[in-house]
Every structure is written in structure tokens, then in C-alpha cells.
Write a structure and sequence with these properties.
Layout (H helix, E strand, L loop, with lengths): L2 H28 L20 H25 L6 H11 L5 H9 L2 H13 L17
Length: about 140
């Protein structure tokens, strides 16, 4: 009775897995080395000239980010790289407390090792990891 739904979910799962194998390393490779230790970030709209283009890209980026966050939460109990998916989604999405969450996740030794291993293979310098004793506000 649910065979079509299960096939669709299985196909979607395989597709998302393939996309993550390509997209995650690219995002990690192109992150600035000091991304997680910057005290101030320049808003993206300052770099875009046309507000409609900026708004459209911002909406698409946020939708994709939230999809990754939700998929990452599911992958905490299902097969997959849950914490890395949440981190990548948090990097793309905009929400209050974003930078605090990103820093908390990247401080996990397994996460920072994985991120820097990917960057090392691409001959990129390792990401700067913030110290855990900083008083942060999101």
C-alpha cells in the first residue's frame, strides 16, 4: 500500500546523499579560514547591487539551510552525518543565535577534525577554531 511512498523516500534519500557528498566539501573548502572566529560579518546585501537578486538568493539560501538543519536533526538518529549537516545548514540559514551555535558545533573535536581533513585534501589552510572560553552572544 505504501510502496510508492517508500520508493519516493528512498530515491529522495539517495539523491540528497549524493548531493551532500558534492556540496558539503565545496562549502567547507570555500569557507574563509577565519569564518568561525570573526567578531563581525559583513551582510551579503552590501555585496549585491540589485535588491531583488539579493532577496531571491537570500530566500533560496535560507530554505536550503533549513532543509539541511532538519535533515541533520533526522540524521542524528538515522544514518548520515547529522552534526555536519546541521553545521552546514546553520552556515547557510539566518536565525538568532546562529554564530553561537556554529561555534559550539565546530568546537567539537570530531567536527573540526573532519572539516580540516576535507580542507587539507583541497590544499586549503585549516579553519581557525574559536576557543571555548569566549563569552559569545548570538
Amino acid at each position: 500500500e505504501y510502496q510508492d511512498l517508500l520508493q519516493w523516500l528512498g530515491g529522495t534519500s539517495l539523491f540528497l546523499f549524493a548531493v551532500t557528498l558534492i556540496v558539503f566539501p565545496l562549502v567547507i573548502i570555500y569557507l574563509p579560514q577565519d569564518y568561525f572566529v570573526r567578531h563581525e560579518r559583513n551582510p551579503a546585501h552590501q555585496k549585491r547591487r540589485h535588491p531583488v537578486v539579493w532577496l531571491t538568493l537570500t530566500i533560496l539560501k535560507n530554505i536550503f539551510g533549513w532543509v539541511l538543519i532538519l535533515a541533520g536533526i533526522a540524521m542524528l538518529v538515522l544514518p548520515g552525518q547529522g552534526v555536519l549537516s546541521i553545521l552546514m545548514g546553520a552556515t547557510l540559514a539566518n536565525f538568532p543565535g546562529k554564530y553561537t551555535l556554529e561555534r559550539r558545533l565546530v568546537r567539537r573535536p570530531a567536527v573540526s577534525r573532519t572539516l580540516n581533513r576535507i580542507r587539507d585534501r583541497a590544499r586549503k589552510p585549516p579553519l581557525e577554531i574559536p576557543p571555548s572560553d569566549t563569552g559569545e552572544s548570538g
